[in-house]
Amino acid sequence: MRLVFRVGGSVVASPVNTDLMKKYVEVLLSLKMHGHDVVVVVGGGALARQFINIAQNLGLEMTAQDEVAISVSRLFAQLFLKKFGSAACSNVSVTLEDVAEGLRAGKIVVMGGLKPGITTDTVAALVAEQVNADLLVKGTDQDGIYNKDPRKYRDAVKLDHISFEDLDSVFSESQHTAGIHQIIDPEAVKVLKRARVKLVVVNGFDPENFLAAVNGEKIGTIVN
User: Where do the domains of the chain lie, and which CATH numbers do they carry?
Assistant: First the structure.
């Protein structure tokens, strides 16, 4: 299978959790060794948002705010890349063409942000579309997608399944802002609707959930 994994910065980088990062590397290496193509997109988490705030305080426009956040996400991507060793590409991928090249070379591809105006959610969706992925899995700080924000509403209900068309109805934000913190960002939703790549959103604090999603187990929220 051709697999794209979105590792949330809220999971491994807020605060930085090196033990969890090591577990992710083990799980993703095992998938690679079992013959799967693997692309990993890493977010910048709280540190990225901290730098966005710094950029805002400096009076920098949103494009510049995004650019510093991208730099932070690529630092975390580089840490993953180095830990993968020779199984991964020699450098963090910064274009969709880099991703295709890395997969052709039989390597694990690792990337952070891509360009201003989109989050790493959208990067993962664009990559999944570009490489015709069989599955996109996102590890986040929630157990899946809820009918409303569970951080704000105690009566929020987790959805086991939702269609691409219904995604908009469960999210409050409809356009990108630097540092947006929504379980799937609005631009990614647009790409997912277009690409029709199956998405599974799982609790990212247990990397074994990625294996469960790949194996077709009932976990998190399935979007298709």
Answer: 2-223 (3.40.1160.10)
